[in-house]
Amino acid sequence: MTLDLEAVAKRLEPRFGKAAHRWVGTLTRRLDELVARWELDLGEPVKSGNSSVVFRCRHPRGEAVLKLSPDSYAVREEVDMLRQFAPSGRVPAVLAAEKGAVLLESIHPGTLVEKMPRPPSPQEYAAFLNDLHGAGDPAAAPRRLEDWIDVLFNSATRRGADLAGSKRLRDDLFAAPTATVLLHGDLHLGNVLAGGVKGLVAIDPMACAGDPCFDAVDYVLEGLDRAEMLRRRDELAAAAGIDVARLDAWCRVTAPIGATYVSNPGHSAELAAFGRGEY
């Protein structure tokens, strides 16, 4: 196993500042401790974001994924929420955990849904959502959907999104009574894996308590044109048994946020138009 510690520190620095370098200085020793304690055969690092380091490995129970982060609170939250969702069968099993580190079941084939040549059907995705939302206690959520939306709005505003219409729709949605479930909260299709016999599997929850329609939004908005987005909206709502009008409103709340992220100019323009209510 090879690990470029300097590259790891540079990758984590935007999130953790100079503390990233101090943490990386302890990483080799920490890995040695975990390998011994959890009886791991450590493999190569896996590409990850700016908050953690991830390795493939083998465990006595089979292939696994080891994740470590300077943010021990975030790791603890992830572990707690994965255990909440575990009865659904739609998240990786937590094999072991301690401060700042978690060992997860490896998902096979593990293809990101956003990379699949053919996306899951609305019926497949509805079954996935209903399984997720049927597990877990919304009272255990570390945040409410209202709070998470504020975080997303603040980030999108810094990127230049026009959210005036989104905020009005958000207020209308929160004013109307609806079911409350434990939401994944960050269910873009880069956080959904093809799990073979397990079906679709969710990773990296940003769990919150709120309207079940919210977790359906990204599947709809990742359709590349308006016809596909509207088809996904209608078929997913029907298959999942959710209110299509609420799903549509949540899509319009979040479409301007998505428009600031996607790299495809045509898709970005369609999202912005969806958010403006042009179709």
Please characterize this protein's 3D structure.
- The chain has 279 residues and is an alpha+beta fold.
- The chain folds into two domains: 5-105, 2-Layer Sandwich (Phosphorylase Kinase, domain 1); 113-276, Alpha-Beta Complex (Aminoglycoside 3'-phosphotransferase, Chain: A, domain 2).
- It has helices at 5-16, 19-25, 27-38, 72-85, 122-133, 145-158, 164-175, 217-221, 226-240, 244-259, 265-276; strands spanning 41-46, 53-59, 62-68, 94-98, 101-105, 181-183, 192-194, 200-202, 208-210.
- The strands form three sheets. The protein has a five-stranded antiparallel β-sheet, covered by helices on one side.
- Strand 1 (41-46) and strand 2 (53-59) form a beta hairpin.
- Helix 10 (244-259) crosses helix 11.
- The longest helix is centred in the C-terminal third of the chain and has 16 residues, at 244-259.
- It is globular, with a radius of gyration of 19 Å.
- The model has no long low-confidence stretch (mean pLDDT 95).
- Keywords: Kinase, Transferase.
- It holds the Pfam family APH_6_hur.
- This is Streptomycin 6-kinase.
- It comes from Micromonospora echinofusca.
- One of its GO terms (molecular function) is kinase activity.
Summarize the structure.
The protein has 279 residues and is α+β, with helices and mostly antiparallel strands. The protein has helices at 5-16, 19-25, 27-38, 72-85, 122-133, 145-158, 164-175, 217-221, 226-240, 244-259, 265-276; strands spanning 41-46, 53-59, 62-68, 94-98, 101-105, 181-183, 192-194, 200-202, 208-210.
